[in-house]
Structure formats: structure tokens, C-alpha cells
Amino acid sequence: MAEPLLILSESMHNADMYYATKFLSSDPFIYLRLPGKGFCGCEKGIIIVSQMDYERAKREASVEEIRSALDYGKNIKFEELLLKVLLEEEIENIEVPRYFHLYTAERLRQSGIEVVPMKEMRLTKEREMKDEQEIEYMKKAQRACENAMALALTVIKQSEVEVKADRNVLARNGRILTTEDLKRYIEHALIDSGCNCDGGAPLVACGKSAADPHFSGSTPLFAGEPIIIDIFPRLKKERYFADMTRTVVKGTPEKEIKEMYEAVLDAQNSALRVVTDGVPCKEVHNCVCDIFEERGYETLRKGGKKGFIHSTGHGVGLDVHENPKVGDGDNSNEKGNENKSVLRAGNVITIEPGLYYPEVGGVRLEDMVLVRKNGCENLTKFEKKLEIL
User: Fold this and answer.
1) Which residues contact 108 (CB under 8 A, 6 or more apart)?
2) Which domains, ranges and CATH numbers included, belong to the chain?
């Protein structure tokens, strides 16, 4: 039987806490999961919140028992409250996540309670498998994502090309159109669709800046050069993310960019054909690397420092980046960190191959897909088209 689990955290930014409780709070509260204490010997979830949040927690939280901190004494210190709760439940051993406060852990140990940090959070593992309700939320987020992308491409399409001595720039309403301008259009569209950008502002990069996968600066948008647009909104109410990337060119792209785009599209399609229940994540990643290497592009797998320099994808859910990792490593920063993860029906992942060369720019395409028993369902319906005329 699993040990009791303890989390002390807010749930606004801690996806594990929100997943366990379905109670959204910017203030820290206590969550206990007790094995064998629930109905028919199942696990029992308990939260202890401030008196201020108690009535709201009773309406919103999904755990079996909700308590007020006031029941344990007025103005009680947090560590004293926690110790009272654990002693009341006769808990001698408790599992905690790796981010658990060291000071609090030491106070518990001094009181005779064994505190065991978990290498892998149980809730994080559970979150990999999405149920039908979660999938519907993510489809809703994806629709908002695609509406914002459509607006961004409309802005690019309707822009004018101003001829300059060195590079032709895009203009709108008499002023140069920048990456920051496009981000603002996207963000406004997301707000109108009930989303926010909790995972970060949309990524928009043009020309040579597009060779930086996470470019965050501001530059003009140029005609004839690749524009990467990566949008990853979160539903304000339901808290689930979507994630999508498209690369476009206003006008006619250079031959090298067009070839890169075709390679990325072929690599993505090959990976999508491989994705299914039971397939190792590393196999999906290797499929992408194979396509790129066959066409003469560099990959991180072969030690390249440009070309394909990131993983093929990642899980999506209450966090924009979560397990499973679709790459050749598990991102644990430990020796021998070969990715041994296997895709399971119910995983929602991205497939996002890209090529990046500082001398010409970059190309990335990203779809979000649901792993099924036989193949996958692409939750991304937005078209892929390089040229905007």
C-alpha cells in the first residue's frame, strides 16, 4: 500500500495540487491523501484551508473531506497546524514532493514523523492519462488557439510590403508591423476566447531570429522570410492548455526555407503515423531524426548544434510542458537518463519537429494529438501552408 501523501502549496501555479483538489487558490493550503481511509478502503483526500476559503472550498473542491484551519486554533502557526493534523490521523510516515519546504520537513522529522521525498510525484504520473472531460477541455483550448492563429495570419495577409534598401518589411496602418504587434493581436484573441497566457507570451520570431526556438525579443516582420508563431493558451476557468506552432512566409520564400519546411512537414507526418499506444517515445523521436539526417540536416542526436536541436514533443495538460517527454532523454539531468517512457492511450502530446540555422532562420510545425489504442487523433485542425500571398 502506498504511503500517505502530503502537499503544501497554492494551486494557482501548482498543477499537481489543482489536479488533486480541483480547488483554485493563490494561498497555500494542506492536501493529504490517505490510503485505505476512504469509502470501501479507497484513498481519502483531505484539504485544510483558511476560514476565509472554507465555504468556497466546500462548493468547489473535489476531495472527500474539507476542514478549516480555524478548527485547530486561532492564529495557529502553519507547522503546528500541520503537526496536529498528522498526529490526529496517526501518520508516522509521509511522502512529499521534491519541492517540499526543507524547513517544514525538518520540523516534522524533529517531531518523530518520517518524511520521504518522492523521486517521481504520483500525481504527476496520474496526470499523463487524460479522461474524456479533460480531453474536451483541451479541445476547447485548442479551438481558442486556432482562432488566435487565424487572426495572426489574417493580419500578416492584410499587411502591406514596404520596399527597403536591405530588407522588405511588413506594414499595417502606415507603421511597421513587429513581432510584438502580432503577439498583442494573439493575446487579445485569446482573452476574448476565455484564455490567458499563463504559460508565457506567444512566441513570434522572424527571419534569422527564428533560428532561436524560444526567441522573445522584438523585431520587424519581413517579407519573404520565415515567421514562426507558437501559441500555447490556457483556459482561465478549466485550467487546461493547448499548444500549436505554424511557420509562414509573406510572399515567396527562399529555396532553402522551402526545402526546410518540406522536411519538417514530412518529419511531422512520419512521426504522426508512428504515434500509438505502446510505442516508446524515443522511437517517435528517432523517426523524426531519421528523416532529417537522410536529407542532410544536422540533429542533436548526432551531436549537431544547429538543425534539429530539441525533442520531438511533450505532454500537455494542466501544464504546457509535462510528461511524457517525446525525445531521447527524460530531462532528469541524471546519468543514464535514456527516455524509457512509452506512449499510452489517453496521453495528449505535441509533435513539433523543427530546423534552425542562424544564417537563414528556422521552421517549426506543432500539432497536439491524443494517443489512441490504434494510432492517434490529431486535435489540431488548423491548416499547414507556408506561403501567404
Assistant:
1) 79, 82, 83, 86, 94, 115
2) 5-126 (3.40.350.10), 132-388 (3.90.230.10)
Going by C-alpha positions, the residue among 364, 224, 243 that lies closest to residue 307 is: 364
Q: What's the pLDDT band for 201 if we cut at 50, 70, 90?
A: confident
Provide the 3-class DSSP secondary structure of residue 239.
coil
Query: What is the per-residue DSSP string for 10-57?
Result: -SSS-HHHHHHH----SS-EEEEEETT-SGGG--EEEEEE-HHHHHHH
Please state the pTM of the whole predicted model.
Answer: 0.92
Phi, psi (rounded to 5 degrees) for 146: -70, -35
By C-alpha distance, which of 243, 282, 187, 214 is closest to 365? Answer: 243
Least trusted range by pLDDT, from 30-44, 84-98, 123-137: 30-44
**Has residue 37 got a pLDDT over 70?**
no
Sequence-ordered list of residues with C-beta below 8 angstroms from that of 87, at least 6 positions apart, any chain: none
Q: Distance (Å, rounded) from C-alpha 195 to C-alpha 142? A: 10
Rg of the chain over all Cα atoms, to the nearest angstrom: 24
State whether residue 369 is helix, strand or coil. Answer: strand
Q: Are 359 and 224 in contact (CB under 8 A)?
A: no
d(CA 278, CA 343): 5
Mean pLDDT of the chain: 93
